[in-house]
């Protein structure tokens, strides 16, 4: 009897030890998971900060005009994330391959699904690039993912709407602005090809989070009056009217940074064999600015952006932006040809497109259907 009681006590002791070990092990596993999750969040925060630290290192905040400042910052983010290498048509194809064209715009996806989509975009990009120009895919995924989360999920819900993601990627990818705007129009118009004001308002709400993300919200943040500043009188907006207004010179104030970001990309390697009237640099790269009042007074983009002026010139003078250099002889020849009617006086800012949107396609032709 005593021996039996001893074995019962011993068994109970073993069971208690096993349960204690199991509880301790489960607690350790929970602790390890918490540490791992915090480590991942911490790593994401570091990578997120790193992008903004690098952006601040470019000293964009010394740029006097908010339009140029915003465009420069977003162009930096675009290049740092290698989005400038992804053409808008490739982006449309990525949307379709991911099944996003069949999902409701207001539906949400979690960050894990977003990471899968972004990964696919970059891996497909590397397949198109020459071996010598391959990008660091993992770094690009991390930078873009963290920027998107910081921009569209600042409260940390772990989800983004389909429309937010499409609006951001279609705006920040590479390609012609007219193709991007056609892509965007397909998202905000009805089956008859007429723009829905409520959807355009939603687009502005999402796309204007981009300037806010780079600390330019006071200049280009969303307001409830933003839609009417773009289309103050028109009641029925079709594709060509939409393009006319958004590609006008100047464009609507809330989106003025968007075409400028594209012009920045086009002039990064533009060379002007002209001396800057302020810093006396013998040549210029990028934009060149000519004063409309002071004869022969020209500034490089660095001096103009910083508001430098000397002599009789003033920052209040009207300046004309030049993206290329033409010799005086060529300019004179062009002016003579134009006066004789040999050169068209004005050109359309974009081709005229059919007002009725195409039906969805399995491939990606150079016409925009529903995406």
TrEMBL record:
PANTHER family: DYSTROBREVIN BETA, E3 UBIQUITIN-PROTEIN LIGASE KCMF1
SMART domains according to UniProt: ZnF_ZZ
InterPro entries: EF-hand-dom_pair, EF-hand_dom_typ1, EF-hand_dom_typ2, KCMF1/Dystrophin, Znf_ZZ, Znf_ZZ_sf
Record-annotated ZZ-type domain positions: 271-327
Protein's name in the database: Dystrobrevin beta isoform X18
Keyword Nuclease: no
Keyword Zinc: yes
CDD domains per UniProt: EFh_DTN, ZZ_dystrophin
Source organism per UniProt: Salmo salar (Atlantic salmon)
PROSITE patterns: ZF_ZZ_1, ZF_ZZ_2
């Amino acid at each position: 009897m005593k021996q039996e009681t001893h074995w019962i006590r011993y068994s109970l002791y073993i069971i208690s030890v096993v349960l204690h070990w199991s509880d301790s092990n489960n607690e350790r596993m929970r602790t390890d998971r918490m540490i791992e999750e915090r480590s991942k969040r911490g790593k994401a925060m570091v990578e997120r900060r790193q992008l903004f630290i690098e952006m601040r290192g470019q000293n964009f905040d010394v740029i006097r005009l908010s339009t140029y400042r915003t465009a420069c910052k977003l162009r930096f983010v675009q290049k740092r994330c290698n989005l400038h290498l992804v053409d808008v048509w490739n982006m449309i194809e990525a949307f379709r391959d991911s099944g996003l064209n069949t999902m409701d715009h207001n539906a949400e996806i979690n960050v894990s699904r977003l990471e899968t989509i972004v990964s696919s975009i970059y891996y497909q990009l590397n397949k198109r690039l020459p071996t010598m120009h391959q990008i660091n895919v993992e770094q690009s995924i991390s930078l873009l993912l963290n920027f998107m989360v910081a921009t569209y999920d600042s409260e940390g819900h772990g989800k983004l709407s389909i429309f937010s993601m499409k609006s951001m990627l279609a705006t920040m990818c590479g390609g012609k602005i007219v193709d991007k705007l056609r892509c965007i129009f397909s998202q905000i118009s009805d089956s008859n090809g007429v723009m829905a004001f409520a959807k355009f308002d939603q687009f502005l709400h999402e796309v204007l989070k981009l300037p806010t993300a780079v600390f330019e919200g006071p200049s280009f943040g969303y307001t409830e009056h933003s839609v009417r500043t773009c289309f103050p009188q028109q009641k029925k907006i079709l594709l060509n009217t939409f393009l006319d207004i958004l590609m006008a010179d100047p464009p609507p104030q809330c989106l003025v940074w968007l075409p400028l970001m594209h012009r920045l990309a086009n002039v990064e390697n533009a060379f002007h064999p002209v001396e800057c009237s302020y810093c006396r640099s013998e040549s210029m790269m990028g934009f060149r600015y000519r004063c409309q009042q002071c004869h022969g007074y020209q500034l490089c983009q660095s001096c103009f952006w910083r508001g430098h002026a000397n002599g009789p010139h003033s920052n209040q003078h009207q300046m004309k932006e030049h993206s290329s250099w033409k010799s005086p002889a060529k300019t004179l020849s062009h002016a003579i040809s134009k006066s004789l009617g040999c050169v068209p006086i004005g050109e359309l800012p974009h081709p005229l497109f059919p007002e009725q949107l195409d039906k969805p396609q399995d491939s990606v032709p150079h016409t925009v259907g529903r995406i």
